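note to self: the first set is below, dont mix up w the second
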Amino acid sequence: MHRCSAVPVIVMLVSSALAGDNAVRASYRADLASAIDTHVQNHLPNWNDYFVDLHRSPELSLNEKETSRKTAERLEKAGYKVTRGIGGYGVVGLLENGPGPTILIRGDMDALPIVEETGLPYASKVTAGTPDGKTVGIMHACGHDMHQTCLVGTAETLMQLKDRWSGTLLIVAQPAEEIGMGALMMIKAGIFEKFPKPDFAIALHTTGLIPAGSLSFTSGWALANVDSVDITIFGRGGHGSRPHETIDPIVTAAQVITALQTVVSRRRDPIEPGVVTVGSIHAGSKHNIIPDEAKLQITVRSYAEANRKLLLDSIRDITTHTCRAMGCVKDPEIVIREEEFTPATYNDPELTAAAVEVLKQVVGPERISPIDPQMGGEDFGRFPKTAGCPGFIFWLGGARMDVYEASKRPDGPRLAPAHSSKFNLDPQPTITTGVRGLTSLALSLLGPPGKSGD
């Protein structure tokens, strides 16, 4: 049980660089733990309703009109100065509360083109048309509904406690994370020119692979650079019975795919993480027709910029020279889709160390654990990188405890990962932990009260 003393109890938590002047100092506000818990419990039913509403009404990337409206209205009602339309449907809630650090807290909004199969009573039934005339289901299969709920809950809690801290808050509801564009859109729209530049940027991301009420984290590289590469190979088509009269782009593509496997195994330093995956190959229309073209789609993952360049340069080199060796009618077209590039997310080690100590106070040391870096992508990293400040994103567990325990059995159910049609979260304990964690972390980085000249 938390007990609140008559005077502020501030537990100073300093990262491992204790002797350095630039060490990140996070002050766990033990004096506010009880107030945070009370506020969370009092508002949990309302936040749960908000989560259910968002889950039922997902919106795809670049189409987050209603989601952004709902979050903006919640922030305005709480007392924030809200600006809409920062990079598409991006929303910024500003609270200037005296001198002190500026903290950016970010939550993403968009959903995925997936037909939901969770069986939940509030499962999404939303569909949308595609440019080619098809209809797709839409689902919050990556937890962005929970991210928005925790963002709103944290913003409301911090506003409630504003006489107990000093500094500035930037509450950022970001669009288009799933296509790697949202953070860049908000940056290009002038978020760091129109609003105070942050001293720290923090965020969370849900996972269905650890129980609700648990947290995990990574120090240093946490999530990868994500590049998408489109390749068109130009052959010369003809009849399948007379291959000698053709230049077969399918056979050439097969040679390219095989050769690309050497990029990671033979060109890259073995201690540098890297992935080159050919996820799509399209060519031809009938059994006995050799086509003129073959198209490949590739995802490339890396951390360090030098390694990213090596992987992309190697793909260009191997593809071009393989096509030449196979006698293709011209060099392949190789397009690196820069508009979809997602930069690697780096958790500042000093901020991470200090933040983890705060979060241990929130959930208990037995419920937070380190995990390996992930090769998935997340564009949150653009915010601290562009602002020139430390950043930290942590993982918020959401699996129901009974399902998690059952999954340990050899014949137990498989936990649903992000982007699965069965992805679902245990709402109330996940909201509780997310809001308590983000609020406590923000308060640990903000200034103490009494610095505003009152």
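second set (the one i keep forgetting abt)
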Amino acid sequence: MRQKLLNISPLDGRYASKLSFFKDFFSESALFKKRIFVEIEYLKQLSSFGVIRKLSQKEIVVLDQIVSNFDLNDALRIKEIEEKINHDIKAVEYFLREKFNRKKLEDLTAFIHLGLTSEDINNLAYGLIFKDLKKNVLEKELEKVLVSLKELADRYKKMPFLARSHGQPAVPTTFGKEIANFVHRLQKQQKRLNVFKFEGKLNGAVGNYNALSLIFRQIDWIKFSRVFIGQLGLVPNFNTTQILPYDNWVEFFQKLILINNIFLGLSRDIWTYIMLEELRLIAGKNQVGSSTMPQKVNPIDFENAEGNLEVANSYFQLYERKLPISRLQRDLSDSTVRRTFGVALGHTVLAWNSLQQGLGKIALDEEKIKENLNHHWEVLAEAIQVYLRSTGEVRGYEKIKKITQGKKMTRENYLSLIKELRLDKTEIDFINLSPEKYVGLADKLIGL
């Protein structure tokens, strides 16, 4: 607790308990570990392609254990080396030399990071982190929210609800249908997120295998890269400079921007329904809504979600603008920016979790919903004008507009209008029509 109070970032302070698992993805220690994994796998691939001597099964186990046993002390040692030489990837290489020497693998030290540039390691390490986070966190958290939304949509699919356009009473819908609209949008993005693949590159200082193809002419380095990157679960990109073009990662961020914007709209809509008292919040036993107004129950989960979604998207939009552009074959201005990836993704996960919590605390105030519907019989004006025009009355819309525009109607006003227009004896049962019944095919549209 004391340390949390001294941290600068809210992700490491106020929200640390909610994102403790994020250290396994985006802490510097986690990045070191993933870089070491890539270096070890590369060395094993050099052996399998005959670039270096064959590794025994025992040696492979020893190499794998360097990764699996990696801990905070190892990370601290890498930082000590980095502080002396001012280069993080070279510090990883020197750390591995130390490990190899202690494990009687001295003859392999010369081949660590052989022919590679730092970005060969970095892009693959980040790609693996993104892949793991997407599969183990983002896909699961998104599915949780979708399950909650689908349950709400199904439970209230027949619950009449006053829709509003431009903030004004429009025509009725059902609450379930309005939630289902968000479900439908999110499911489309979920499919695209789930099948998204991250790219990787392994082709040297400017992307041409210059040193490797000169020194080891017998090796098909394009095949080497294709096999190696594919085995990591990434898609090889052979057309690069020193860096992997960020286009692929930006596409990933763009998918998250869209999902976050859908959630932003949902959060604001739920907040508004609460303000209109059509939804009510179930207060926690010890929850305090206000430091001075004891009666309050605030929609803090939805407000928290909204704030975190906007913070996350501000970072993602920065990545959109900044990362696809690099001077010539490489500049280092991207390095500082990409160290914030965990911040953007952390705020995203926080927002999704807040939204999920909030959805579990809302309930419809059915009496208030019915009251709102019955205070606005003018919403049936649409049905009347469409019927008049269907009979050939060219100015049917204008006639009803003159009577209803900007006015509230009661049931009595409505019935009087129906009789005045002689619509009480048509094939359409206008007499028994009401705002609660005028919901169209809302419940049938859910799930289509």
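remember for set 2: Residues 133-202+243-365 form a domain with the Fumarase C; Chain A, domain 2 fold (CATH 1.20.200.10).
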